[in-house]
Amino acid sequence: MDISVVLGCSLGAALGGVILAFYKLGLLYQLFHKRQSPRHGGESVADVLRAHGIKFVFTLVGGHISPILVACEKLGIRIVDTRHEATAVFAADAVARLSGTVGVAAVTAGPGLTNTVTAVKNAQMAESPLLLIGGAAATLLQGRGALQDIDQMSLFKPLCKFCASVRTVREIVPTVRKALAVAQSGTPGPVFIEFPIDTLYPYHVVEKEFAPKNTPKGLMGKIIAWYLRNHLSNLFAGAWETRDLSPLPVHIPHATEDEVQRCVELVSRAKKPVILLGSQATLPPTPADDVRKALEPLGIPCFLGGMSRGMLGKNSPLHIRQNRRDALKDADLVLLAGTVCDFRLSYGRVLNRRSKIIAVNRDRSQLLKNSDMFWKPTVAIQGDAGSFLLRLSKALKGHRCPEEWPRSLKEGDAIKEKANRSKADEKTERHLNPLSVLHRVDELLAEDSIIVADGGDFVGSAAYIMRPRGPLRWLDPGAFGTLGVGGGFALGAKLCRPESEVKYFFLLKKLPL
Question: Which Gene Ontology MF annotations are present (predicted)?
């Protein structure tokens, strides 16, 4: 082979290696982008949050995240300091459920983040759009034994739809925008962003930490000093260039026209249809009140669960509160609108195998849960439950469920509630009768009250006795059944609805007087 060809190949490979090294070290980017500025990364985070309509950030203050909190406060975003990181996440979860926006919690590194794990898992199972912001050790010190330094990404990847670790200040804006969009897209849920401390503080502060205390000696010392200077430059290069802060598109699955039409045919032929509404029926973009208006003309009896409790108001003739198992056995059509066949529906065993079953859910795994064993959907739609109900009602205009069916279920309701009332009137020797307490509080509830139910069996009792007066006026832990959510939920609820009374119910077991 010609030696010139060999030399050319060798030089080309060497040049390619040099260019790759320049790229990896950020040398090329640094040549064309500004580095120094009195601004800091916390301001970039706050700018994006404000552009997305975030009004509250819940926290337990720590040094790793202080720049974010200071910047948010300057922009009018209210910082709410709690006494435990789990409470901060529970409060953000409540804000997400009640406001239709993303709830935001910011906590410090290490134990600050590990304290949030239960609350983040609760938000995941409740399908709440939530952004968890976490501090972290400096980029060059991760894995080297820095204060509160652990592998935080591995901890949250199983719990969150999206996890990111910011490595340069210029990444902050696009990363936060993406996280907020992912939290709301598809099936909503929590997302996590890790911010190393050197991405949040100003250049001149970080520079002092990078500067060697003594003049480097020897070749290796000079190489290390150069590497540190280059890392600092790359960390801040291009950080303050103008970037789009506006929200990215949120992607929500919808039923197809063919799917809606097939459901129209099934519902129009049903004599004993039943609708089971879950929390997904309250999700944006369809207002909960619009879902109510779509359901009322159909006249189909409805069972409400999760966040959908209260959707039909206090005394709707369509809202059936008792004897759900018997109703499902008699029904010839069941519409699961965001309701999952998990333990709450005996894994699907309560459904009549002869019934036509329409299942609508944004999450495919939840849509078909246990359908391989105990039930089979006639139509399974991966889509948004709220918008589906609006389209179904519009297509069924003029159709109404036979009156005798909801009337018979309502009569059964009255009999069961009379029995519950008699249990509430029973005298107890040493303790308050919890059913009596719930009945009495329900009688005194203001029209704008928000009910926060916390604690095992007490939540179940409250669910069939108390009557939320309207949509989005009920908060409970959700499918994870976490105890201790109440304080954070009540805090978030009161901030969202300052004019409303927030009733917080918590009971684990009977305590001696």
Answer: acetolactate synthase activity; flavin adenine dinucleotide binding; lyase activity; magnesium ion binding; thiamine pyrophosphate binding
- The CATH number covering residue 462 comes to 3.40.50.970
Residues 365 and 431 in one domain: no
Encode pLDDT of 83-106 as tens digits: 999 999 999 999 999 999 999 999
Contact 350, 329 (CB under 8 A): yes
Q: Is residue 292 part of a domain?
A: yes
Task: Judge if 461 and 366 occupy the same domain.
Answer: no
Place of tokens 């095992």: 456
User: C-alpha angle 464/468/469, rounded to 5°?
Assistant: 140
- Where do we find the tokens 């301001």? 43
The tens digit of pLDDT for each residue in 420-452 reads 889 989 988 888 888 898 899 899 899 999 999
B/e letters for 311-337, b = 16+ CB within 10 Å, e = fewer, are bbbeebebbbbbbbeebbeebbbbbbb
DSSP state of 345: G
- The one-letter code for the residue type at 149 is D
Question: Given strand 162-165, what is the order of strands in its sheet?
Answer: 78-81, 56-60, 103-107, 130-136, 190-196, 162-165
How many whole angstroms separate alpha carbon 310 and alpha carbon 305?
9
Residue 316, token pair as written in the block? 């709707």
Residue 106 falls inside a structural domain: yes
* Nearest residue to 190 via CA among 93, 78, 60, 79: 93
- H helix runs in 100-201, sequence order: 111-114, 117-126, 152-156, 172-184
Report the alpha-carbon distance of residue 335 to residue 389 in Å, rounded.
Answer: 10
3-state secondary structure of 73: helix
CB–CB of 132/192 below 8 Å? yes
Together in a domain, 262 and 403: yes
Specify whether 135 is located in the same domain as 219. yes
Sign of CA dihedral 453, 458, 460, 466: negative
Contact 279, 366 (CB under 8 A): no
> Is there a single domain that holds both residue 385 and residue 502?
no
How far apart are the two ends of the chain, measured CA to CA in Å? 97
Give the global pTM: 0.90
Domain that holds residue 228: 41-236
d(CA 193, CA 179): 8
